[in-house]
Amino acid sequence: MPKKNPDQLKVTTLSLSTSSLLFTSFHSEELHIVLQPGHKWIYWGGNILFSSLLVVLKNGTGTFLQKNVSVAWCISLKSLSVKSKSHLYEASKILQVANELCQKSYFKLCFSRNIYNAAAWYHNHCLGQMPVVMVTEDEDAIRQYGNETEGVFVISFKNYLDNFWPDLKAAHELFDSIVQARRERESESQENHGKEYPEHLPVEILEAGIKSGRYLQGTLNVNKHRAQLEAFVRLQGFGSKNTELQSDILIYGAKARNRAIHGDVVVVELLPVHEWKGRTVALCENETEDKAPADTTGDPMPTGKVVGIIQKNWRDYVVTFPSKEESQSQGRNAQKVLVTPWDYRIPKIRISTQQAEALQEYRVVVRIDSWESTSLYPNGHFVRVLGRIGDLEGEIAAILVENSICAAPFSEIQMSEMPVSSPKNPWKVSPEEAKKRLDLRDTHLIFSIDPKGCEDVDDALSVRTLPNGNLELGVHIADVTHFVAANSYTDVEARARATTYYLADRRYDMLPAVLSADLCSLLSGVDRYAVSVLWELEKESFETLRVQYSRTLIRSAYKLEYETAQALLDGDTSVVGDIVELQSLDEGTRQKKLAELVWAISKLTDIARHVRAKRDRCGALELEGIEIRVQLDDRRNIHDLIPKQPLEVHETVAECMILANHWVAKRISEDFPHQALLRQHPPPRQEFFTELRECASAKGFSIDTRSNKALAESLDRANDPSDPIVNKLLRSMATHAMSNALYFSTGSCPEEQFHHYGLALEKYTHFTSPIRRYADIIVHRLLMAASLRGTTGDVKDNIISNKDLEELCRHINNRNRAAQRAQKQSTELFQCMYFRDRSAESDERCVADGVIYSIRTNGVLVFVPRYGIKGAAYMKNKEGLVISCQGAGSCQWKPGSLHRSQHKITSTTTTGDSVTLSLFDHITVRILVQSSRCHAESIKLEIIRNAPHHTADTEAAHRSSHVVRSDLVKEVSQYAEEAQRAQERARVEVMDEESREFCQTKGPSLYQLLEEIRELALLDVTEDIRT
């Protein structure tokens, strides 16, 4: 076959089989077929190719492709006309053959023949106008079919690269890497007859064992601080229902892990009770030791071993090549290299490459191909280079890869679906569309309150007095679904991304900027389409009398920042200069407009206090998180790390959003009881509160965790007037103990499991941020479908089946967790960069006040309020020396021993000097950066004085940290409770069962801002204030 210049070809790719290597091109005349049976499908296509692939695999439903779906072939096209789409649907019916069959020679031959027939059919279907290229590693198929049909070419993968992509160096290197890795793996299997690990049990035995209760199924979670030693399996599925276990299962050591990798779904066999071990309670620095000292482990817990893997959740891994010295110690074979993953939880990976020396200073992406029982390490291959170690862009790229985040720009065909809007040709409201909507532009004072610099303004608020004297509260949300049609290319891409990803210095949007920062952003002074929820409230009690859901046309009057709105709420009108919309007005008009705005903000706050008080009576919790904003200068260098200060206006906006989400959840679940998307927050497991209860007892507080209301009341009482940080830390521990809030389909679980433990609401969803959350887009479509019911409107496109919605919820939950991890990791990256550029010995910014919140056998865990940092501070170093502090003077390392009790730890030197540190003690720490070639840098704390560190910032933080909930909200809550008790005493009739249930909820409430962050120690969630 003659060589062809790909730049002169228009190529479409028909991809057949499940290949570990799939090249796709992005044009539309020539058809390529790729066949490599027996390997896991990994899709490398662009966004549009992916959307087409989904359509064909699921016969047009657009459902996501699961990682382990066994599909023999699929079709991917870029620019599809209606006619070519119908061609795809016909072609998709020709052949589907399971991958397992391809591993047998007879079925492999049959498989190749059928795929060739499919290629020939498609060539004939296109009337011979489109040459077809079938790529396969089956040499028999190449010989037999290579010249059988004119216009259908059958070639090897190497021939394919040589002919079509001769100048694509990276692809050739990748192909050579895969081939070399496969050859060495086959050679190793033949030479190494010894077993490093036991073989995994067959699937049928695993399934039978799970059903009988002999084996247990769950997801493997490796302890990143003891990656060589500890992993835990959290039970799931059928097997967990037949066991009385109430805790995770410890998998102790690499042998017991049996080649399972973090994130895999595994099957575990419990060990005899006398072989159970305890989890490590000592501080550690990700050392490679394979055993822990006996005195550093806790009480024995259920311990097991992995006997099989149900699902391998392998992904791309960021790795670092060994240094020159490490390479020499590994051996003389330069082609076989052990690379170290960026993630501590992933084992070293053996790859074959000739570029090891050249790539020693770079972050590199690799993939795992296999892990044989005869090998200590998994085998993989090199994929691509990300950037230099320590370089900001390279480190950000590593974070994105580790969290499987797509940062590619939106494709041309997606952008072609966007409306036109430019300075010369601005977008305008359609007169036809305006007639279909409730026009609020001249009747409502609408404004937004957002963080400084916010561009994607997806919500706005309004409040006004009705002619009958009652109030009308309005929450107005950008009508994204007007611009993003179901199953459009933009919709499929938004579904794949699922959320906007916020990093410390940038964001990756879920939707194109023309929507997220312009047409769907509720900016002031411009007309925008919205979906509004309007409540009529009784003027004094604020009880809901009527609610209305409408597509509306609005014009926001003001785009306020939180600080400005709070100043107006406090009566400080000096900030009027910060309100751009008032600048051009004369003094009289300005004062009139300002008075209207101040009244609206005050009235919204009054309403929010009462709404919050009602939830408080049902057990709503006010929990604590640590929020840090990275402040950059004009050159994007790190200027400061600023803890976010809580404002009452934060709660005002959050309560309005929570109210809207709650009412929308009620509406869509009533209309679509089996296919509505809601958000549940399960009650936490009681054992997760152990540390919270123990720490509270150190201050004499008792924490009742039996219900959300009991927990909320206990946390309110656990207040030390002399040290507000104590309550802050206790609430943070309570947050850490919480389960994650998750999206779910109402048809997938019973209604008694719908409730949101954190918010103390029976039904809840996400409706208020469709610009940055795909779940909200689905909810908008459901709400519009509910509103159109009984009319002539067609609602079928807005409804997803329960099965597909359940699958979509899993995908969105997974992407949300990835977004949280990426945000946390990027914040940690900038924290390390901030302190790395400063001298720890001389720069006063590297010394701060810290509060002890946990005691370990060899040190303490410390919270640094100034920077929102949590970290370990050792009291015993690697040389065995212990810390010695002379009064309030500096600390030194001396020979001695440590003694740990429940609430304190004592260091005693051989000379008899001793120092005792207790829970919630204030100490002075030095903040250091622990560097690493292979992993992300981390913060390290060093105790320098056994006394608080006093600065002006510390005193200010100490005074402001007590504002964990508005005192006014507490007063309203207490007043409402007293009124309710008086009403109950006067009531003669017995409260019915429904009201009784309403007054006693099923679990505690988590402040909306933090409901998704459970385990994050540092996180800038400025953009998530209304989540």
Automatic annotation (TrEMBL):
Tell me which stretches of the chain form a coiled coil. 965-996
Q: Which cofactor does it need?
A: Mg(2+)
User: GO terms for molecular function, please?
Assistant: exoribonuclease II activity; RNA binding
Q: Which reaction does it catalyse?
A: Exonucleolytic cleavage in the 3'- to 5'-direction to yield nucleoside 5'-phosphates
Give the record's GO biological process terms: mRNA catabolic process; rRNA catabolic process
Q: What class of enzyme is it?
A: hydrolase
- Any keyword Oxidoreductase? no
Reply yes or no: does the keyword Transport apply: no
Domain RNB: from-to ranges? 437-789
Question: Where, subcellularly, is it found?
Answer: Cytoplasm
EC annotation from Swiss-Prot or TrEMBL = 3.1.13.1
Instruction: Indicate the principal place this protein occupies in or around the cell.
Output: cytoplasm
Gene Ontology CC: one annotated term: cytoplasmic exosome (RNase complex)
Alphabetic keyword roster: Coiled coil, Cytoplasm, Exonuclease, Exosome, Hydrolase, Magnesium, Nuclease, RNA-binding
Q: Which InterPro entries match?
A: Dis3_CSD2, NA-bd_OB-fold, RNase_II/R, RNase_II/R_CS, RNR_Ribonuclease, Rrp44_CSD1, RRP44_S1
The domain of life for this entry's organism is: Eukaryota
The UniProt similarity line reads:
Belongs to the RNR ribonuclease family.
Q: Which PANTHER family match?
A: DIS3-LIKE EXONUCLEASE 1, RIBONUCLEASE
Report what the protein is called.
DIS3-like exonuclease 1
Q: Which organism is it from?
A: Ficedula albicollis
Q: What is the lineage of its organism?
A: Eukaryota, Metazoa, Chordata, Craniata, Vertebrata
Q: Which gene encodes it?
A: DIS3L
